[in-house]
Fold this protein.
Amino acid sequence: AYKSAVDLLLEIRLKAKQNKDWATSDEIRNKLTAIGFSIKDTKDGFEWNIWKKIIENKYWFYEKNTHCNRI
């Protein structure tokens, strides 16, 4: 469920960038980065990823998500 929320926030960020609303774009990126997300802008949209820890098994795994939406 969180993936959909992150994608929605990044869609809002992408639209803000298209409208040259750099303050909103930066705020969304900075807040997601502060809670552990890495966001990379690409020529086709964006990619995001996060490191997660599964406490029960003490394993770390890396999750990468790519969303393409031409600017």
